[in-house]
Design brief:
The protein has no helices and six strands. It is mainly β. It has one domain. β1 (about 1-5) and β2 form a beta hairpin. The protein binds zinc ion.
Length: about 55
């Protein structure tokens, strides 16, 4: 589960699809539109495992 850093709403994966741009991986909060950073915690060559990271 992810938590929006601005409005603190709790989100499950299907509610917010992660996206990627040249700054990295992130998801947009569906309630307030805040851009929450994500990082890939998976091992190299393994499956992608997205985790929420601090600013
Ligand atoms: Zn939010």
């Amino acid at each position: 589960m992810w938590t929006c850093k601005r409005c603190t709403i709790n989100l499950k994966f299907p509610e917010c699809e992660p996206a990627i741009d040249h700054f990295g991986v992130y998801f947009l909060c569906p309630r307030c539109g805040y851009r929450n950073k994500l990082a890939n915690a998976g091992k190299p060559g393994g499956p992608v495992e997205l985790v929420q990271v601090g600013e």
